[in-house]
Design brief:
- The chain contains nine helices and six strands.
- It is an alpha/beta fold.
- The chain has a single domain, classed as Undecaprenyl pyrophosphate synthetase.
- Strands 3-4-2-1-5-6 form a six-stranded parallel β-sheet, sandwiched between helices.
- The longest helix has 21 residues.
- The termini are close together.
- Bound molecules: farnesyl diphosphate.
- The site of farnesyl diphosphate has 20 residues, from α1, α2, β2 and α3.
Length: about 240
């Protein structure tokens, strides 16, 4: 057991649709709306607990294949939330950041996003990164192409390709790797989220649906993380000697 609070937590917020259905709502949209409330509360609690980076999977590349009505609703929830949540972000010193193929977002959505990112850019309590139109394989492919281009242009030698030079080409450059990845709703998959970055992350799968996610669930996930032995390839004996 260690008492370390992870510096970076990544969350796959899953279960909004099932939550809406269980509550008897006709559409899945209400689940996404309450999902925003759960995200606001989680970001606030995380910043109060001293977590420096929180990255959430808000919309995957694969989510573009959902019905147009749901995509439109999600985009308008996102636009509305970006302006209505500005006060919460400022009050808690949260800097907003975004990763993913942002050019695929509707123009007004991208504009609102850029404005909120700019307005919060000097906050330094916690960085909240929204993964939007994000896919980790796509991100790794873009990085690989950039590396290949640098090799062709002669600005990078093949033996200079390593963890550090590769990480620089990822959209998460500047963020530390997450030590803890949480997925809600009981599904036990990573679903193309931060595949490179979560190489050594502890994975915690919680049965709670995202709209019901609370401070207690966040604390439970952190406790599970603290109870894990993070060997990073070493033996238990080596870890004990170090401690
Ligand atoms: C997964 O639940 C959730 C999403 C695809 C969207 C997550 C979005 C939010 C929490 C709101 C904040 C972000 C935006 C973009 C407004 P699901 O719909 O896959 O649920 P299911 O697995 O029960 O069907």
């Amino acid at each position: 057991m260690n008492n370390l609070i992870p510096k970076h937590i990544a969350i796959i917020m899953d279960g909004n649709g099932r939550w809406a259905k269980l509550q008897g709502f006709k559409t899945r949209i209400r689940g996404h709306e309450i999902g925003v409330t759960a995200l606001r509360n989680t970001a606030t609690h995380a910043s109060e607990m001293g977590i420096k980076y929180l990255t959430v999977y808000a919309f995957s590349e694969e989510n573009w294949s959902r019905p147009k009505s749901e995509i439109d609703a999600l985009m308008s929830i996102l636009i509305r939330s970006l302006s209505s949540e500005l006060e919460t972000l400022q009050k808690n010193g949260i800097r907003l950041n975004a990763i993913g193929n942002l050019d695929n977002l509707p123009r007004n959505c991208k504009k609102e996003l850029q404005e909120t990112i700019k307005a919060t850019s000097s906050n330094n309590t916690m960085t909240l990164t929204l993964a939007l139109s994000y896919g980790s394989r796509q991100e790794i492919l873009i990085a690989t192409k950039n590396i290949a281009k640098q090799v062709l242009e002669g600005t990078l030698k093949i033996n200079e390709i390593n963890d550090i030079s590769f990480s620089k080409e990822l959209s998460t450059y500047g963020l530390p790797d997450p030590e803890l990845m949480i997925r809600t709703s009981g599904e036990q998959r990573i679903s193309n989220f931060l595949l490179w970055q979560s190489s050594y992350a502890e994975l915690v799968f919680l049965p709670v649906l995202w709209p019901d996610f609370s401070k207690e669930h966040l604390e439970d996930a952190i406790l599970q993380y603290q109870n894990r032995e993070r060997r990073m390839g070493k033996t238990s004996d080596q870890i004990e000697i170090k401690e």
